[in-house]
Amino acid sequence: xxxxxxxxxxxxxxxxxxxxxxxxxxxxxxxxxxxxxxxxxxxxxxxxxxxxxxxxxxxxxxxxxxxxxxxxxxxxxxxxxxxxxxxxxxxxxxxxxxxxxxxxxxxxxxxxxxxxxxxxxxxxxxxxxxxxxxxxxxxxxxxxxxxxxxxxxxxxxxxxxxxxxxxxxxxxxxxxxxxxxxxxxxxxxxxxxxxxxxxxxxxxxxxxxxxxxxxxxxxxxxxxxxxxxxxxxxxxxxxxxxxxxxxxxxxxxxxxxxxxxxxxxxxxxxxxxxxxxxxxxxxxxxxxxxxxxxxxxxxxxxxxxxxxxxxxxxxxxxxxxxxxxxxxxxxxxxxxxxxxxxxxxxxxxxxxxxxxxxxxxxxxxxxxxxxxxxxxxxxxxxxxxxxxxxxxxxxxxxxxxxxxxxxxxxxxxxxxxxxxxxxxxxxxxxxxxxxxxxxx
Length: 440
Prior knowledge:
Elements: H1 4-12, E1 24-36, E2 42-51, E3 56-64, E4 67-68, H2 73-85, E5 88-90, E6 94-100, E7 114-116, E8 123-128, E9 132-137, E10 139-140, H3 146-156, E11 165-173, E12 177-185, E13 191-192, H4 193-200, H5 209-226, H6 242-261, H7 277-287, E14 308-311, E15 314-317, H8 328-331, H9 338-359, H10 367-382, H11 392-417, H12 423-439
Antiparallel strand pairs: 1-2, 2-3, 3-4, 3-10, 5-6, 6-11, 7-8, 8-9, 9-12, 11-12, 13-14, 14-15
């Protein structure tokens, strides 16, 4: 794809393009690698889009006879073949390296069927023969993608509750070093945790509640494995520095200031928190006065019900990229494992309201509280206690900090995308403010 306007039109029209409100001034192919010269041809391109603000974003295109080769099963099968064989393809200013995880290359029967995963937003995923799934990262950031790092570590340490890593491919060169895609085993027949929760919310048994205890155990087991190798500097647990909590507080404090500055005046659901930005920030200062933080480790980073599957009578955890809107360097930071716990607790709050809004379900008034209790109890029984701050009060306070961080992030998202849902993060912020007030 060499026509500049054609590149701009193609990229900006895709669902995985994330800057639809910005004006693109120009596009430039930073590098290209010919992956296949025979029909069907296959070329990988790194394309830089430059905006009128002076900023830019880099995207990965896989170009074939039909423009986007990921729409052609023959093209995507070629990518998997190169992962299996460990190919190293020269580009004009670097190279593309393909690698198979241990034990995968020899299991190489020919792939027959390929189908796209239509629900994907920020990446492109293709399922092969209901056995493998290839995720192609579209928007690229310099460095190793955390999903590759975490999946490789968890696979090598035999954590059972993931779709194991089968391989990956990456670019190294003058413009950028970046992970381009990962290949995993495909979990066939699984049910999305978010959908399962909404579908069963109102039944007499509490829906997914009987399974929540196991989800807490799996989460604790994941954190224990991620903290299990003191000899790997990328994953070794660390004592947080004196600056860690101050940095966390400053980050959340800044997010609060930005969100509360621009609250719309015409939404009555915001009345409960309107004009209370300074009060929220003061409550944050109270919550962060907790002393010890436990230890920091690599963690999931974007943990909620939508990142889980219920399959073969157990939970499978998915999507270890972290929050896509945050810089990759931030997503790779070691943090308290309670940040993941807070994400799941906020997901329970969302599920309870979403079931009423989208499924017209009559949700039991205590459903969220029961889900929280079951998840937390089993998590705390399973996780390595040395990762947490000592004492129940300190755990509760640090957890509230991360819940507040998540609720403010949610408020910004809902204001921008789903104004009808702003009541969910507003209720969470109110509850956390009350919790901080009790701590005074």
